[in-house]
Batch of 2 targets.
Target 1
Amino acid sequence: MTKTLAVNAGSSSMKWQMYEMPEEKVLAKGLIERIGLKDSITTVKFGDQKEERVLDIENHTQAVHILLDDLKRFHIVEEFSEITGVGHRVVAGGELFKKSTVVTPEVLQQVKELSALAPLHNPANAAGIEAFMDLLPDATSVVVFDTAFHTTMPEKAYRYPLPKKYYTENGVRKYGAHGTSHDYVSKEAAKLLGKPIEETKIITAHIGNGASITAVKAGKSVDTSMGFTPLAGVMMGTRTGEMDPSVFPYLIANDSELKDAQDVVDMMNKKSGLLGVSGISSDMREIIDAKDTNADAKLAFEMYVDRIQKFIGQYLAVLNGADALVFTAGVGENSVPVREAVLAGLTWFGIEVDPAKNVFGVEGEISTPSSRVKVYVIPTDEELVIARDVEALKVK
Ligand SMILES: Nc1ncnc2c1ncn2[C@@H]1O[C@H](COP(=O)(O)OP(=O)(O)O)[C@@H](O)[C@H]1O
Ligand SMILES: CC(=O)OP(=O)(O)O
Ligand SMILES: [Mg+2]
């Protein structure tokens, strides 16, 4: 029996699962959420034990240490050497990485160098890789890239309408993110549709703290809402999504707190989105609780929904229609009000939601039998994909 650990560090969370491979049996799993916010929550599930603790966890390095302590504390492992493979989600692989790769010192260096393409993620991903490699020098360490699935996008979709040299000399283009999730849920949706994936057109809405929407044709990403970095696309927990870049110099000239372009980008990454508009929180649960009594929270909710609807509309055009629309990730899987509001504006496309199915905890189809586009809630499982890639790359 070999134990493989999959680590999925998101912008606000760290999810992990320990598997027995190749059986894909989940031995234990955990979630550390609200990293960087007050009252972070860490949950561990192991056999019939479940523990939830509320702590203040400031960053991902601290989260890695909590995860490692928990592995020993719950006797999930007696010795770290029982873990023979560790897979890490890395958000940005640029044009260097088109598939998952075994970590070498050079690969780790490249992950760090790609931080400009995912400033909230790659540094945390690299810190996680290093922490585990120090403790588990003999385990196979694998990196699984969010951008890999999107390397099938056609050039007309991934290029920006800038002078060509910024692409050829600087690599400025759309890379997308959340690819492991879009890949996984689109395959699951094809199963639910009962069709070979080659015959499907699917729009996948991965809406978590970070959020992106993808047009998937025949199982391949053909367009996606995130861009050069995960700042682009729809409005998110703390990120703006699409912006007019002319705002950048204007704000630098007019706000003394913003000295340069980096300050503006940091503000747009960390202080904007739901948090910035509402002034309350980046967490959709808190926005929903406040929106009936607080006008800013109500506006934040409406803007959030509006941006998701617009990208779904774009991708219905890109694909010239779709067989299915999938909701996944923290908000997409759990928030009935967000799904309800998004879908209420898409009835012209023949999308019909069944309110009896669009309830908390339901997975699978939430549309009516006559809906022209099937609507599915599919829990994503980036960790399973990561564990499979580790297994495939392990030196046997
Ligand atoms: N029941 C719920 N209703 C609304 N939003 C939820 C619910 N549960 C979780 N969320 C949202 O999911 C987000 C986390 O999503 P997740 O996909 O785990 O994020 P990450 O981007 O860190 O991977 C939280 O910010 C929270 O707003
Ligand atoms: C790329 C990205 O935004 O990831 P997450 O949603 O996990 O923060
Ligand atoms: Mg995530």
Target 2
Amino acid sequence: MSNLILDIGNTFAKVAVFQQDNIVTWWRVERDDLLEKISSVLFENLIRKAIICNVSVVIPELESVFKAQQIDFIHLSATTPLPFRNLYATPRTLGKDRIALAAAAVGYYPARNVLVIDAGSCVTYEFINDQNEYLGGVISPGLKMRFAAMHSFTAGLPDLRDQPFDDLPLIGDDTKTGMQIGAAEGLAREIDGFIDDYKKKYSDLTVIFTGGDHEILSKRLKNSIFAAPNFLAKGLNYILEFNLNK
Ligand SMILES: Nc1ncnc2c1ncn2[C@@H]1O[C@H](COP(=O)(O)OP(=O)(O)O)[C@@H](O)[C@H]1O
Ligand SMILES: CC(C)(COP(=O)(O)O)[C@@H](O)C(=O)NCCC(=O)O
């Protein structure tokens, strides 16, 4: 018997299958292909429980798929019981993906000061203290969003969102390189800056780095981090077990 985990972000939906605490397999899909993917996963796996975490547009058919197959499910919301104390001042507006990241922090690093950085459409920073209290963090434009913004808000800058790049020089000697340095190296410096600030206050800080852009960004960081590609899915699985452990 397995758990189905759905993390619907603003760029991609991620689908994962867990057995107990272990991720068995996962896929990154476009939102439009999600229902088809779920059908094939349900056909190929014996799914008993599921959790939906959606920070993007509502997909009305989603719940009926689980109801039709009599799968117990949770649609993560502001009222879902959580394995940590949520001290966010506006819990109703807190992103459900951010709740999942905080849950993963307390599940995998209990009673520690943890900063979770998720480099997705936006870069989010979640701070959980050694009392298992979630305090909040930071919301910042993600890598693709930076490229998109430079293109959208100027007359002369190209759209570089889908242009691959690797090592970048200090000095950008053409438009493309200058923009790539600004977007990627600039974001890496932002991330290092926040890590440094948190470390000044919490010297024993554990830093977890996840999200679709974690690979391209982590190699540009000065600070050492723990790369955790499926950290959000692990947090969702933990919330699912916390609520439907029978
Ligand atoms: N194989 C890939 N295909 C497309 N995008 C990828 C791939 N690997 C990493 N990415 C990056 O992942 C980012 C989205 O990250 P993700 O964590 O899925 O965001 P969100 O949760 O906001 O949907 C994209 O902006 C893209 O730069
Ligand atoms: C900040 C986010 C857009 C991040 O979404 P993502 O980049 O992971 O798709 C999402 O967590 C959200 O909509 N948050 C609501 C505001 C808040 O958390 O306070």
